[in-house]
Each structure stands twice: as structure tokens, then as C-alpha cells.
Amino acid sequence: MVNTVEATAVNTIRTLAADVVHGANSGHPGAPMGCAPMAQTLFSKFIKVNPKNPHWANRDRFVLSNGHACALQYIMLHLLGFDVTMDDLKKFRAIDSKTPGHPERGWTEGIEVTTGPLGQGVSNAVGLALAQAQLGATFNKPGFEIFNNDTYVILGDGCLQEGVAAEAVSLAGHWKLGKLIALYDDNKITIDGDTAVSFTEDVQKRFESYGWQVLVVADGDNDFEAIAKAVEQAKAETEKPTLIKIRTTIGYGSQHQGEEKVHGSPLSADDIKNVKQKFGFNPEEKYVVPQQVYDFWAKRAEENAKVEAEWNTLVAKYEKEFPTEAAELKRRLAGKLPEGWEKALPRFTPSDPAVATRKLSETVLTALSDVVPELIGGSADLTGSNLTRWKKAVDFQHPSTGLGQYDGRYVRYGVREHAMFAIMNGIAAYQGLIPFGGTFLNFLTYGWGATRLSAVSHLRVIYVMTHDSIGLGEDGPTHQPIETLALVRATPNIYTMRPADGNETSGCYLVALENDHRPSVIALSRQNLPQLEGSNIEAVRKGGYVLHAEQKPDVVLAATGSEVAIAVDAAKLLEKEGLKVQTVSMPITDLFDEQSHDYKLSVFPQNTPVVSVEALTVFGWQQYSHAQVGMTTFGASGPIKDVYAKFKITPENTANVAKDLIQHFKKIGQVPELPCQR
């Protein structure tokens, strides 16, 4: 290899990767060592980012989809001048360090999305590219390319084997996202060994069939010029995303290069010395970056700072030419919602007709579509069931298709739930857009890996999940969610919402939009529900509230969603027998948990029996109730009323359970304290 600064910089990445992983005694050295030339080429010649302003809106986005190779990304952030010091590299994978075991958005500056589970990163990258295309079409004017950044992603064989990646790259090709460029680390190794044992498809033909341009670099270990030429060719193709298939050697330079041994385990101390000697480094020194390499990257940082300065000058001119658009742009980039947007939320009274909450959700989305223009959403081929599209919506489609425009805000995801969720994470991470997506609640777990990452990443993503219980009826147990919301409620940093009527549906969207660092799952009914006496939009901010209050009640009935009306009817039956009943609606149990102790006791008074009602699993309700009316098995196929009757989720049974509970506690002479009362 020619001893140039570029070659030295590449070998610096390789030796640092070996040291960093060995120092942690954990991690993956092979991919960073093999990908060093492509990372060096991307960041030194193409990717425009400014370490002094990591959130510059028009920066190029970089995603390391094979997140196990995160040592590579931390090393690049260090060399570029981001807030990742050499000490941080030495603390790789240590508790609370800036260099955790996989890249985490919000934890380390310069990390765009949280990756690790394979396939998620490239799917996020599709969302990032979609966001750029949509915002560019919305704000760009002739002579004013406000949004024109590229999205780059490095991915490996593992990413390409994951189903979510297949779903997402299919959509990227359909949408003709020409500013999406993926570099495929074709090292033919996974943890189990050679890809010959399980991955022998023709990746090139596969991506070409998706509508991608595919380029090939035969020697990704040494031919830096070929990598650069391929990226230039990719940038020149504006109508197709590009996959650059780069043949590399995993663990390049190691005694075990090309073997699975260098994939998921540190190199031995002797092997690291061998690597350093091979690349002209002192084998006795650790964590070394030659000054000429630091100087090289400092110069690149200066170049990128000038690029941002030029963009800032362009935006200043844009503000004078297009003050209305500029004000909207400034608001969105600041992460602020429009002034007074919440006034558009529909309000309802008990005299209004009974309506399914999925239909009420459509009403809310329609009302918000004009006043919150950053809302962008769609459905996984269930638009007519999820009711996620407002009447004036324009589809996000490439203009050449005649099916929509790039400034459209309705996204047709097709039957791709997992990709939809992962793409929404990318959209949310970009800045300036708030994504929502719809499917049946039972299919939330089809894409749960991405939903979980919404929570880990603190992204404002809204999951519009309809057909939320056994109330969907005839489709039966394959489609009736029982355990799903228990999973969501058990997951940190995600709101689980189940509104009971129109006001609560508006309230759920209020909370979902106000919380910009937390995703929300809104579970919505298929069946019509009455507008309840005492329901309140603003009360939803408390997570749970008293729908009908009583002084010293004999019993409290608590419910969510479609079962609140059942609790109300059960209360009427009990009141006829002279009992005082306090009814409680719990649309967001996670949010109720965050309230003060005094507030919780005002909802669930001490020494008072509590019965919960929910047409989902009873698991978890022991936190709030002494007895539960709900599901302990899977559901059944049949008309809604018959299904509810079969499982005894009725006003009559609820009233009977309440009476039995009251008598039981009278008999034992005490009412046990509930966990939520402590």
C-alpha cells in the first residue's frame, strides 16, 4: 500500500479498532477493520457534517446499520472532532460512557439513529432519505436548496438477511430515493462462519429488481479510488437509490483476517502487535493517532464548517425572499408546535352519536392536518380500516409516477408493518416532521423491534393501532390482541393509550404531540362507543381521572377504551342497589403512574375496593385493582356482543364481581392497599 496520509488514516482506523475492542474485552473488531477504507473515503470526500454544530439541519446523514461495528463510528467521530475523546474510546462499552456497545441516538453526539438489531439502521436510513425528499419538496425554491443532503449507510450481510431491511429497501426503490446511498460490506462472513452456509442469493440482482442502481467495487481493502468513483457515480444517479457492493476482508491485517474469529471477539495482544507492525505502527504503543492524521481531519472539519456557513447565508437570503416559509422552517427546526394548535382538537358532548375511536382518530387527524403541517403518516395497506388518511391528503410518491408528489404527507407503506415502524424512526430522527403510522394493534408485534427502538431513541413516533381488542369480533383470535398492550405498558419510555370516546381520543393526540421525546401507541376500537358524561380532553394529561366522583364510594370501577362504557353501565346497576360507585377512566396508565401520590389517592381512595375492566389480558391490572374483569385466554370468532358475553366482559358480570369483592372485604374486615396507592 502506498504510504500516503490517506493510507495512514485508514490504517489508523484499523489499529484503533483493534485497540478499542481489546481494551473493552468486548465487541467486534473485524468489520471496523474491513470497513476502514469506505469510512475514510465517505467522511474525507463526501459526508458533510460539522462537529461544532452536530444538528445542522442540512448535514449529510450517516447510519452504521451493522451497529455491532460501532467502534468504527466512534473512531470516526473522534477523528472528525466530535465530542468523543481518546479517553472515551478507551472506555468503550463501559457503563455510562459516550461509547456504548451499540450506537445510541441522543447519547453520543453525531449518532443519527440507534442501531444494533440488524436491518434497523438501513430501514431508518430510508426514513431519513424520505424526510429529506419531503422537506426539500416542501421548502426548496429555485436557487434555494435548503434541504439537499445525502443519506449514507454502511450495512453488512446480516442486515441484508433481515426481513425488515427487505421491506424497507423495496420501498426506497419504489419511492426513487436517489439521495440514499448504501455501502455493502461484502465480507461474506457472519458469526456462524462463511455466508455459504446460509446466504447465497444474488444480492445485485435482488436490489436491481427493487429499482436500485447497483455498483461493484472488487477490492474494498485497498482500492480507495474505486470506492470514491462509485460514490460519485451514486450521487450522479438522482432517480434511484444506490447499493455499492464492496468486496472486503473482515479483520483486514489480522492473522485471522477473512475468518469468523475476528467478527465478534477481540484480537489477541500478539495479533494486535502483528497488525500494527504490518501497517507501520509501533507494536508497543496503544491508541495512537499520528499527528498528520489529526491534521488531515482538522482540515476536513474546517471545510465542512465552511459548507454550513454557506448554507446559513443561503437561509438568511431565503428568510428575506420567503418570510412565511422561513418562519415555518425555523419553527419546525426548533421543535416547536404551532401556536394554539391544540384549539383545533375536536370536542364532544354526550349528545353526540356513538362513534368508533378509529373513526374519531380520523376526525382528529383531519382537524390537525392543516394546523400541524409537520404531521406525516400512513398505513400498512389498511388505510380504509385504520382511517389514517384525511380527505385533502396528497400521497408521498415520486412525481414521475403520477400517484402523488414528494411534498405529499400520506405514505403508502404496503403490507410492511416492520419497515413502516423503522422508517418512521428515521423520519422522526431527521428533524422537522412528526410521523404516524397505522395497522391493527395485533400486528404491532410484527414490527416490535422497531417500536422498541422508538422508545430507546426517545423519538416522537405515533402508532395508530386500530381493532384493539376482542371487540373486532369475527376475525377471531388470530387478529384479537390480548397480550399486546401489556407488552407496551411494560416497556420504558413509551405511552400506551386507549381512549374511551371522542374527547379522550383528542386528549391522546394532545399528549402524543406534546411529548417530543417519547413514542405513543394509540389503541383504537373497531366498534362504536358512546360519548361519555364527564370525559375531558385535558384530563387525559393525567393518564387516569375520575369520570364520576363519589364521596366515600363503596367501590371504584376503572376501565380503558371500549370498556369504560361497560363500567359506567355496571355502576348504574350497582347504584340501583344503593351502592355508591366512583367510575375511573385510565386512557394512559403509564402517564397516571407519573402523577403525585395525592392525585393517585384521589382517583383510587384507600380502603375502597377497586374492580378493573378491560377486554385484554388482566396481567398488570393488579397494580390498580383488587379484582379484574378481562381476558385470561385468547379470544374467539363471532359477533361482538356474543364474544363479550362469552368472556363475561359485561355490565352485569362487572357489577357481580364488584358486589362479591365488597362482601369479601367486609368479611375479612379490611381492604388491602394497592401498589398504586403506596
UniProtKB/TrEMBL annotation:
Residues involved in substrate binding: 28, 263, 358, 385, 467, 475, 479, 526
Binding residues for thiamine diphosphate: 68, 116-118, 158, 187, 263, 443
CC cofactor: thiamine diphosphate; Mg(2+); Ca(2+); Mn(2+)
GO biological process: pentose-phosphate shunt
Site residues (Important for catalytic activity), renumbered to this chain: 28, 263
Domain Transketolase-like pyrimidine-binding: from-to ranges: 355-531
Keywords associated with the record: Calcium, Magnesium, Metal-binding, Thiamine pyrophosphate, Transferase
GO cellular component: cytosol; nucleus
Catalytic function, reaction form: D-sedoheptulose 7-phosphate + D-glyceraldehyde 3-phosphate = aldehydo-D-ribose 5-phosphate + D-xylulose 5-phosphate
PROSITE patterns: TRANSKETOLASE_1, TRANSKETOLASE_2
Active site residues per record: 417
Record-level Gene Ontology MF annotations: metal ion binding; transketolase activity
EC number of the protein: 2.2.1.1
Enzyme's top EC category: transferase
Residues binding Mg(2+), per UniProt: 157, 187, 189
Cofactor binding note: Binds 1 thiamine pyrophosphate per subunit. During the reaction, the substrate forms a covalent intermediate with the cofactor.
Subunit: Homodimer.
Job description of the protein: Catalyzes the transfer of a two-carbon ketol group from a ketose donor to an aldose acceptor, via a covalent intermediate with the cofactor thiamine pyrophosphate.
Family of this protein: Belongs to the transketolase family.
Protein name per the record: Transketolase
Native source species: Umbelopsis vinacea
